[in-house]
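hiii so um. not sure if this is the right channel but i have a protein structure encoded as tokens and i wanna go backwards to a sequence. like what aa goes where. can anyone help
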């Protein structure tokens, strides 16, 4: 059997020279927000189940959800819902074959990021 010559080469793309694009970051954020919304849904279901169980159990669940931690989780959940919604609309636009060129894809990525923050602030001010 022939022997192969071992050549030391960096992995491609190498972490030190790779610059993440906005489209890859928004794709990763979509997956992260989708999974984070599952955690928020579990907390809300826990709160509803506690309400149907007993007063003492509901007091515990309500204390967690109305604490600073619960407020933070629910506020970030609103951000996640808006981002996930806008990213889904962007994905539908891409599926139709539109906006696939790099400048348009980056503009849509920024629109998702900025739009989700603006819509979150509006939602939290209304509620």
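sure thing!! here u go:
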């Amino acid at each position: 059997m022939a022997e192969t010559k071992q050549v030391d080469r960096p992995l491609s793309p190498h972490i030190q020279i790779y610059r993440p694009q906005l489209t890859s970051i928004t794709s990763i954020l979509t997956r992260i927000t989708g999974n984070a919304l599952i955690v928020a849904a579990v907390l809300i279901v826990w709160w509803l189940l506690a309400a149907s169980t007993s007063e003492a159990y509901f007091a515990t669940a309500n204390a967690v959800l109305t604490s600073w931690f619960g407020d933070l989780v629910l506020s970030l959940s609103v951000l996640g819902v808006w981002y996930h919604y806008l990213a889904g609309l962007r994905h539908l636009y891409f599926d139709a074959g539109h906006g696939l060129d790099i400048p348009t894809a980056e503009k849509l990525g920024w629109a998702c990021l900025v739009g989700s923050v603006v819509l979150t602030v509006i939602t939290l001010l209304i509620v």
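oh and The chain has one domain: 24-126.
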